[in-house]
Specification:
By secondary structure, the protein is mainly alpha-helical. Helices cover 79% and strands 0% of the residues.
Length: 214
């Protein structure tokens, strides 16, 4: 399982690691291999931590997921199947709200890490720009994780309210409260990533304007 995860992360990162121009794609072929390998390992570890963090939430939905599978195996078009699937979905939704952003952050950070790896023969100035961008992305990710952890109470409230009555007013209200809690986190990380991208572009432009810069 570990090897499969590493291979999958490697395929994702290397397939989405653009160079400075289309003619340089795939960019990883021109990067220092040891640096790229390190990025893949770090991204894999990040994803494992994200899975571990969200596992208790998913485990709390095991009963509803099993009930949905049983109901739909008997009658995929029946009302019992529809109701059971809706209940499982509502239970899993806050779990996905925990795991998916974390997983996306892991992959985004991994891509930035690969981009930051020096090209073979790359000027030090551009290598420094890439490294700064990695640190910027990592800081944005950490800030997002910290912000999201402030919504733990809302996540637990959704689990309690929706586990047995996914269509109840209490469940709907709890899900709305969770979305409202997470929205500033999502907005904040979006702005932070945009600032990182702008700073990286400006840094690279300055290097191009002064090729002798160290």
């Amino acid at each position: 399982m570990f090897t499969r995860s590493i291979l999958l992360v490697s395929a994702i990162l290397l397939a989405t690691a653009p160079g400075r121009g289309a003619a340089e794609s795939p960019a990883h072929r021109y990067k220092q291999p040891r640096c790229v390998a390190g990025c893949v390992v770090e991204a894999g570890q990040c994803l494992r931590e994200a899975r571990a963090m969200s596992a208790p939430c998913y485990q709390g939905c095991d009963g509803l997921v099993a009930a949905a599978r049983a109901a739909c195996a008997a009658d995929p078009q029946g009302e019992a199947c529809t109701a059971a699937r809706a209940a499982a979905h509502d239970c899993l939704e806050p779990c996905n709200a925990i795991f998916r952003p974390a997983a996306r952050a892991c992959l985004a950070d991994g891509r930035e890490c690969v981009r930051a790896c020096p090209f073979r023969g790359e000027p030090p100035c551009l290598a420094a720009c890439r490294a700064d961008n990695v640190h910027c992305i990592a800081a944005a990710r950490d800030a997002f994780q910290t912000c999201r952890s402030g919504c733990d109470d809302e996540v637990q409230a959704v689990r309690r309210a929706c586990a047995t009555e996914p269509e109840s007013e209490a469940c709907v209200a709890a899900r709305d409260a969770l979305r409202m809690c997470l929205e500033p986190c999502r907005h904040g990380v979006g702005e932070a990533l945009e600032r990182c991208g702008n700073a990286s572009t400006a840094c690279a432009a300055a290097c191009d304007a002064n090729p002798t810069a160290e």
